[in-house]
Amino acid sequence: MRLFLVALQFLTRLPVRLRTFEPGWLNDCVRHFPLVGALVGAVGAIVLIGAAQLWPAWIAAVLALAATVALTGGFHEDGLADTFDALGGVVPRDKALVIMKDSRIGSYGALALGLSLLLRAALLAVLAARPALGAVAALLASHALARAAAVGIMVSLPYGGDAEHAKAKPLALAVAPRNLVIALGWCGLLLLGLAASGVYLPKLAAAVAAAAVVALLMRQWLKRRLGGYTGDGLGATEQLAEIAVLLAFTASF
Questions:
Q1: Cβ–Cβ contacts within 10 Å for residue 231, how many?
Q2: Helix or strand or coil: residue 251?
Q3: 18 domain-assigned
Q4: Is 0.90 topped by the overall pTM?
């Protein structure tokens, strides 16, 4: 529970207060990232379904997207923009790391962020017009699996930035494989619950495959360009995996 609260404090804007804190908890709390993601997805689903009763699907979609962005403080969106600003062009590793730390947004970052928001809003609008179970499943799975993808990269790659100047230094240390096992366990429990609720099994399988493909591609990209992951790279991974899972749920098959 303590590690879950640390993960909740790190990934969201919820007012979580801890009496004591040890840096190592931040490293181990990544095992609960998918659980926090499921919570964020649940909030999005509640807003989407509720708003769809009052307004057209596209308005409900934007409101649901706004709710999840507000809950996370745009944490992952910021990482997406910084990553594409740094790696969108052809620059050396050192220059890319400097660009990532720049608070200003460039053309690559603006394009990536704009297209991400537009595509997610469109996908949520499609879900808003469908039965509620599918929308709930898609939001829960997309947020949980996307964060599990980020954990997978942390476990499989070294830190690629300057560890001494990392914003969250404990996450720049090696992440134990057991944390990925537990993170995947949370995803497994969620998927089993969705399957038992009657969600179409091929959709769930496609969602898992989509998140895995994004994780593998991002791992290769970050390894080739930076020699490892950064916090911004993890945010980009989450965003792209989230989109991939939503695409899997809305695909016609």
A1: 22
A2: coil
A3: no
A4: yes
